[in-house]
Amino acid sequence: MLEISLHILDILNNSITAGATRMSIRIVEDAATDMLTVQVTDNGTGMTEEMLADVKNPFSTTRTTRKVGLGLSFLEEACRISGGHLTVTSALGSGTGITATFMISSIDRVPLGNMGETLSGLISAYPNLDFGCWFVNRSGMEAGLDTAEMRELLVPVPLSEPEVYFFIRDYIAEKQENILGGI
Amino acid sequence: MKTLADLEKIRTAAQSDMSVRSQSGKRIIVGMATCGIAAGARPVMNSLLEELQIRSITDVSVTMTGCLGLCRLEPIVEVIDADGEKVTYIKMDANKAKRVIAEHIVNGHVCQDLTIASADTK
C-alpha cells in the first residue's frame, strides 16, 4: 500500500466485517520518540485468543474465497520496515484495538496519505455506522471529526447525502493538513 | 476553512430536496478488500461518488463489498440495475469510473470494453 491511510481503510473494513458499529482512529505524532502512532479501535465481535495469536499470519484469514489474508501482514510489514511495530489487542465481546507505529524520519515510511478520501468514501458507504478520527501533533494540538456529532446536527438528513460526502472529505483533509501537514 | 456550522446549510438544502427524490433501484458496488484497495479501489470509489454528485444523480447508491475472489482483476465495480441485472467492470480507475457513470448510469449503455466479459482472462 502506498499510504498509511489505505492500510487504515483496509483495517476499518475488517472492523465492519466484525460487526463494529463504532470505530475510532487516533493518529498521533510524537517528536520526542520520532514516532507516528496510528490507533484504531472498534466495538466489533473481537477475536478469540487462538485467532488473536495467529492474526498476523498471512495464512490466517476469515475470508472464504481463499486461504490467505494479507491485510494485517501488509500493515505489519509497513510498520516494521520503517522501524515501528504492530500490536493487536482483542477479546471476544469487547472489540479489537490496533496500534501501528512508524518512525517518522524513516526513508522507508509511506506517507500518511489522504484520510479525507479514506473516510468520506467509507462514511458514504456505511452512513449508519459511527466513525471518529482525530489527529494530534507534537505540540499536543488536536483536531478531528466524529460522525455521531455530525449526525445529530444533520437530522433528518442522512450522512449518505452527497453534499455531506464533500464536506467530510474536505473537512478531514483540512484538519489533517493543519495538524499533521507533511507527514 | 470548513466548520461544523456548514452542516446546517447542507441540512436545510437537502431537506427541501429529499421530499422530491425518487429511488431508481440502481446500485453500484465497489470491491474494497485488501486486494481492491492495493489495486486502487479508493480513488474509484471517490470518483464514482463525485461524478454522481456533479451530475446531481441522487437515486443511485454506492456501497462497498469484500473480496470477490478475483483479486488480479481489481479494482472491480459491479453495477446492478433496478431489475437485478448485474454488470461487472474490472481493472477500474478514476477515469473509467466517470465513464461508467456517464455511459451506463446516465445513458443506459454498458461500457462493453471495461466488462469482465470482454477481458482476456487467461
**C-alpha end-to-end distance of chain A:** 16 Å
CATH classification, class level of chain B: Alpha Beta
Rg of chain B, Cα atoms, Å: 16 Å
Rg of chain A, rounded, reads 16 Å
Count the beta strands of chain B.
4
Number of domains of chain A: 1
Q: Could you tell me the mean pLDDT of chain B? A: 90
CATH superfamily of chain B: Glutaredoxin
Task: Write up what this structure looks like.
The complex is a heterodimer of chains A (183) and B (122). With 183 residues, chain A is α+β, with helices and mostly antiparallel strands. Chain A has one domain: Histidine kinase-like ATPase, C-terminal domain (Heat Shock Protein 90), CATH 3.30.565. Chain A has helices at 4-17, 49-53, 71-81, 115-125, 147-154, 162-180; strands at residues 22-30, 35-42, 86-90, 96-103, 130-136, 142-146. Chain A has a 6-stranded mixed β-sheet. In chain A, a hairpin with a 5-residue loop joins strand 5 and strand 6 (142-146). In chain A, helix 1 (4-17) runs antiparallel to helix 3 (71-81), helix 1 packs parallel to helix 4 and helix 4 packs antiparallel against helix 6 (162-180). The longest helix of chain A has 19 residues, at 162-180. The radius of gyration of chain A is 16 Å and the shape is globular. The model of chain A has no long low-confidence stretch (mean pLDDT 92). Chain B is an alpha+beta fold and 122 residues long. In chain B, strand 3 and strand 4 (86-89) form a beta hairpin. Helix content of chain B is 38%, strand content 16%. Chain B has 4 helices and 4 strands; from the N terminus they run H-E-H-H-E-E-E-H. A 4-stranded mixed β-sheet of chain B has the order 2-1-3-4. The longest helix of chain B is centred in the middle third of the chain and has 14 residues, at 41-54. In chain B, helix 3 packs across helix 4. Chain B is globular. Chain B has one domain (24-118): 3-Layer(aba) Sandwich (Glutaredoxin). The A-B interface holds A 1, 6, 9-10, 13, 17, 63, 65-66, 69-71, 74, 117-118, 120-122, 124-126, 149-150, 153-157, 160-167, 169-171, 174 and B 1-2, 4, 6-8, 10-11, 13-15, 18, 30, 32-35, 37-38, 42-43, 45-46, 49-50, 52-53, 58, 61-64, 66-69.
